[in-house]
Queue: 2 jobs
Job 1
Amino acid sequence: MTAHGATARRRVRNRALWFWTFVGPFAVGLGLFTYVPLLWSVALSFFDAHNTVTPTDFVGLDNYTALLSDDAFVDSLRTFLVFTAFIVPTTYVFSLALALMVNRVRRARAFFRSVFFLPAACSYVVAALIWKMSLFNGVRFGLANTVLGWFGGDPVAWLSGTDPPWYWLVIVTVRLWLQTGFYMILFLAGLQRIDPGLYEAAAVDGARPGRQVLWHITLPQLRATSVAVVLLLVINAFQAFDEFYNLLSDTRGYPPYARPPLVYLYYLALGQGQNLGLGSAGAVILSLVVVVVTVGQARWFGLGGREE
Amino acid sequence: MTISRRTLLAAGPAAGLLTACGSDTGRGDDAGAGPRLSQWYHQYGETGTEQAVERYAAAYPKAKVGVQWRPGNYDQQTAAALLTDSGPDVFEGSPTLDQIQGGQVVDLTDLLDGVRDDFHPAALTPKTYAGRIWGIPQVIDTQLLYYRKSLLSDAGVRPPDTLDALVDAAARLTTKKVKGLFLGNDGGAGVLGGTPLYAAGLRLVTDDGKVGFDDPAAARTLARLHRLYAGGSLLLGAPADWSDPSAFLQGLTAMQWSGLWALPRVQQELGDDFGVLPFPGDGPGAAAVPVGAYGAAVSARSRHRDTAKDFVKWLWIERTDYQEDFALSYGFHIPARISLAKKADRLKTGAAADAVRLTTEHGYAQPLLWTPADQTAYQDALSRIIRGGANPESELRAVVRKVSAELDRVRRKS
């Protein structure tokens, strides 16, 4: 054995030591705070776990059948679909339009970029409360009702009425305001990666600036960005909780409309109900839905494939 | 091994991660005389309450009691904390049926020996399960209908004494600027709960543990609530909800359903220009006044159960001076002890005296067997009936089915 070999071994051992020194704490944290609760929750979903996390009453698939035959839960999935149908296209169109405009601005581009991005820094809770209590409250001095009053309209109870369902306007606009700026930044980054040579070539070939260029050059070039944006939007819509909860809940609970899955499960499992078995079953079902939707969407759009 | 700068850097975040996991349980760690108890309260809105309960806790001679004042979703917090060892020893809570059946709270029946009759039955009944008592009522809170005398007399409307009269009064009091009635921003489904059923002479759960509103009268009464909503006489979307008298005080509504706690503020701003009413009766039913009360409960996971029980007895049974102070000096509640309620001067005149009388005559408390799952099913249906104009009969049929199943579940557990 030579001294040289010993040094090499020590170096390898050292490297392993440093690897675990840096990665270890996070791996432990991830395991302890993510994977253990995850598996625990899956286990809980097979038990009658009222007010306990160490249940003994095994019930098999009862929680799953109860949940899937629960109208309120199925309805919450429908709410999610409606919400997604509203929020994904509107955010996509608005953020793309903003990005195209900001990209063309010659002066003060940084200023506009910052101004439009600023709402992304605002908390969902704060924005929801402002929307609820000052912009869209139901009394005559709310901002929206004041504007209506100028045109002789009667005050509308935006969040309290169900016919017509004005509450969707409030829910969608608050998220739109909050997230459009962020997705605009993603689109801007995408736009700036497009080779200017393509536009020059198109102009030489006689393409008219405007719709033709947008349709045949800009949008195809933004394909990868678009896929990522839509994917993020759908997942975010699935996770919607903050603005729904803060706009519509009161001390006595939550109304039976516009109740997305997370809000419903929150009341079921973590409210006074404390039915942790049923709640866990709901969480498992939701995770499966998210996985299926995301994988399906990624396959459909060919995410992860090479950009053309 | 010598500690190099790099080792230190690597160890730092790990230690930080570990210490961040600890939490303040209110028990503290310094060893003093006697055991240390942790007592939880939800956040009362009135100034001075927090200082008062800290003063009471400090005066307890046999243990050091640390008070935790918990803002936010208090019931969720206690429910979660009772699952762990770091929860409270003593806490104010309902306690719920699941907590009692799950063995999470301690039987307190023997603390009431000799004074049981002095507690208001409406406050004590929902704390009683299987003949044992699981929480000592602290105060009684009620909700009432506040009305503005001047607005009613201007419109030539008498204070309504039936549900039909209430619907009619709300319509006649509604003008372009002022609405007739405020039952909360959701149109009343949340705050009214079972009250209209009691006003129709029905029950949520009968004494022998059956569904108490499997009756055509229930649908008729709830349909009248939809008339209130559809007629446009309800205030909706006010910046402050029913529990706050602001909408009433700002003249947005002529009548408002709110809590007894709002009475001092209403009195201060409106003087004599207001009165209080119960929820008016419907058909054969009498008026109804919902009564609610947090009780002091002891966690079964407490390491000092006996001391915790002794503390509860000391504070909520022996120290009547503190009980009176707690009920009347800050917010405005009726003492849970009948002897104290009779003595209190502030409850002897004006609207306060009316409130006490109405509570005694018409008070009802939500039964213990009425679980959160029942509440959700019923409240969803009520909301759909009031706001969506859904058919009350079919909605109630579905609720009756769900509640029956839930009652079976809790019976099986007992």
Job 2
Amino acid sequence: MSESQFEPKIVGFLCNWCAYAGADLAGVSRLQYPPNLRTIRTLCSATVGPHQILKAFQKGADGVFVGG
Amino acid sequence: MKNSAKDVIRIGVFICDCGSNIAGYLEMKELVEYAKTLPNVAFVQENLYTCSEGGINEIKVAIPRENLNRVVVASCTPRTHEPLFMSACEEGGLNPYLFEMANIRDQCSWVHMREREAGTERAKVQIAMAVAKAAKLRELSRIQLSLSHRAMVIGGGVAGMSSALALGNMGYEVDLVEKKGRLGGILNELNMILPSNEPPENLVNSLVSRLQDHSKIAIHTESVVTKTEGYVGNFVATFQEKGVEQKIKCGAVIVAIGAQSLKPEGLFNYDGQKVITHLELESQFKAGTVNAKNVAIIQCVGSRCKERRYCSRICCMTAVKNAILLKEASPETKITIFYRDMQMYGVENEELFRKSKKLGVRYVTYDPERPPTFDGDSVSVYHLRMGRDIVTPVDLLVLSTPLIAQDDASEISTMLKVPINENGFFLEGHVKLKPLDFATDGVYLCGNARFPSTIREAISQGLGAASRAAGILSKEALFTSGIVADINPDTCCGCLGCVQVCPYGAINFIENRGVCQVNKVLCKGCGGCAATCPSGSARLDGFSNQQLYAQIEQAMAV
Amino acid sequence: MIEKVKEHVKSLMASGKISGFLGLKNENGVVIPFLFQTEEELENGFSLGDTETPGAARYPMAKLALHLIQNSTDDSPYGILVRGCDERALNELSRWNQLGSPGRLVKVGIACQEELAKNHECRKPFPDEFVAGEKVSPEANNSVQEVLTKDLDSRLAYWSAEFDRCIKCYGCRDICPVCFCNVCTLEEDALIKTGDLPPENPMFHLTRAIHMAGRCIDCNLCTEVCPAHIPLRTLYKRVAEIITDEFGYITGEPGEGKSPLNILGPDPGHTAAND
């Protein structure tokens, strides 16, 4: 696969009260971004520990986003 | 061996068109067909609007008809619609926590409007993730709690008094706790209230007599709250009343501790004699000792500066009020107000502003980079339009200083575990959505404790906080969320890691068993304990590691 | 040295300060951990683990003490034979609230011989509570710096190759003196698929590494015990170093403070310079 075709897969852990709300707001505002993100809602970014991040990388994520 | 009906996971997936909000940008047929292929999915339904009465009804009917034991809705966002769909599940006979949502509108169709194919692919993944998590969901229950229907109001100023009176009139027992010897707060120091043009005593006396005569209201003056324990519905507050310790149970707490006027020590040769604050001017008015002929008022003294960036909001109105009163008392008095910009919002305040100009009050704007100076006899300031310094003789200089936080604000903030901002004012839960609530349930705020406000605003905030508190006090019982942490006592090693990271103080160490335990009423479900627990003994039901792992695996599976 | 230790333990026993002594015993040429309860037992095969080379037979004494405390039915105090590493492990376990009331363990410290300290490149080859032996200077272990000189790709290749030899015996975990959980994340099927060999790479080893952050006291037992010769100490030493760099926390020091990963909010040790 050539460099130009590389499509990263990004797992996003989003805090319900801020980052997830922000991701919703991006939608409400019709801000467009590439569809490479898969979001996982948590009640707080504190829920996310190193194990979840490792797991995402182990399963092939190219990037992990923790928003909180 | 055949599994019993309960063991077989049967997930119903409801995919919402949201009119054209989703269906206009994603391939709905493809999503439906895809959802049918996912493990454990027993039923898939496309709705025009899942949240409409018809859509909700389809969920309710499908649960028993299709024998569903999990429901997934792929639609907008759980932040707005999860409660609705959860109650639909409950009405359909399913535990509401066996519900999961896939966000395919706010975080998919609306942000990938020009990428139909890729957007549809992402929606598939989000649905697969929700289905995978749904398969791992467990029944959860909300805990029911009894509560005290009594309220405690801290602070007997106009906001606190209004709050206490409103709650008393609603029929709730109220303890009004005031640290000073009498009620009234900062109003007791004022001379006159405009635009109503009446002495503040009228307002204070009317409130005090109604409070004193009220059978539901207990007034505690010279009382300082020293300790609060417990949680929404079940607080226990300890206070010292005239040196005697008292304990009360209450279901809600209202913080109305007010603010204080900044003493501008070191600014403009402030001495309390020739250079005074508005509060000092007002007490001179009351004493009838004002006889200055040349008065200057300087705005924004000690506010909107490096130390205090905020605007105290009420000083402009106060300056205009006092200028009018001075002019009316002796029309020949020359008054100059040095200002940066005047905040006189509302028709009545604007009218006062005009009136003051008609009466001959002179307004001179100044540049904060070149503020006025005072040499003891006159104020010099660079006049922006004339382009040179002008000198105004002065025999009374009044400084418009801001309201600042009470000295005990940070103490009370620590005691009630509620936040204050960098200026020491209490910080509401949300500036627009929860202006009178704290993030902590059962604690509310109003008046100057929150931010400098006019008397009218303080009263309406007091009433608002009372109404928020009544929202709790009026309940027969309280229910906690089912999404709370749990610590398995069989595997917990008692390492105390979770105790330290819990921001709500919800975890206790049970000494004799050597294990930690979650107080499910205090727990807010942040999952910090689960993330820090080395043995995985702490788990957050609803967002457990197993559930997150299932989502992560699906996120990467496609 | 051994006689001095023995006499010390005997006097502790005689004065009733300890109801047993957790030490080592030479049983038919094999050194095993043993709970000595009488003077006669001490006279019969007490060992410091000096077999082929000094200290060749080492055990995670702190971990054994942990099990002893957890399984004892009363609050009686025990003596325990400790080297520098064992004492660091006890200090760390104490911060994690694992050793019960203070005074439960009476440390009988011995300094490690120069050869032993050199073999394990030990950062502090003697305990603070010191009874016998001669203190020798610490030895530096530079394995972390050596790995860090590689670029990221070759570092990943290096570790992947090392981890691929893993036979998942759990020896690293079982020998580790500061691993104390009743259930282990490494065996959680939802996180790391059980039954795979080698285990999911690098998930398995990085999971254990995460648990060593702010915890590993650098005793080198894991590397010593690993049948696949994976340089685990280097990995764990590195994660412990990250915590030291970020929060100023040094594992194995005496004291009450918590591991920084168990503290909410800014840590006073976390200075602006590290931001």
